[in-house]
Amino acid sequence: MNSARPATLCFQRLLPLLIVLAVTVAPCVGGEWKSGIVWPEPPVVDPEPVDGRPADAIVLFDGKDLSRWNGGERWLVEDGVATARGGGISTKESFGDCQMHVEWASPAEVKGSGQGRGNSGVYLMGKYEVQILDSHGNETYFDGQAGAIYKQSPPMVNACRPPGQWQTYDIIFRAPRFAEDGTVEQPAAMTVLHNGMVIQNNFRLVGATAWHKPPSYEKHEAKLPIDIQFHGNPVRFRNIWIRPLVPIVGKKPGESPVETE
Length: 261
Fold this sequence. Notes:
The protein is mainly β.
């Protein structure tokens, strides 16, 4: 009997295990892996100071006046609330990528139905609408109800509170990127929270939103004003703020830093 045969069989059986161990352990032999990227220190921001807004937020409406808005003089500002009337309003400042917080309430007295009940909208860059509507027990087309990216994406859930109650939108928006010839390099994208619930999850828009035509893109500036629509209903607003989003950009030693968009 060949005494080497059992040893050979044993080795063959152990070989797969030895290979797995080698692959698993080898990366750890040289110590901790590091990317080599040198990152700037992220700025420190108080997430919730006394006024309840992030310390770096730009306050667009604090209950006092609409001086940061073109057309703001048309709306009624009373008791810390702005009520839509007489036409839409548009920010005097332009924005691109951003985090935006809006509190709104449809009229407590229910009048009308469908799109005629508590209708308004937040237009990022004046082109990409998150619909405002009283959608509490109010039937309409799903991609036009509260929280919809108008005529492109219904909300994943209907999180609407009853008429007259305050509601919140938290919108994370990434502006579209265009090539020099006007082609879309990256579409616009939105994540939306309605009353704290995610209702749009990084939805990529197929173009500007519109009632009368299909969505499409036309090249535009990297930053544009934000509009809030008046659609004939006295929708109320309070506590509107925005944070421009600027990514942290690092570099590897010897490389020039990448420019932010």
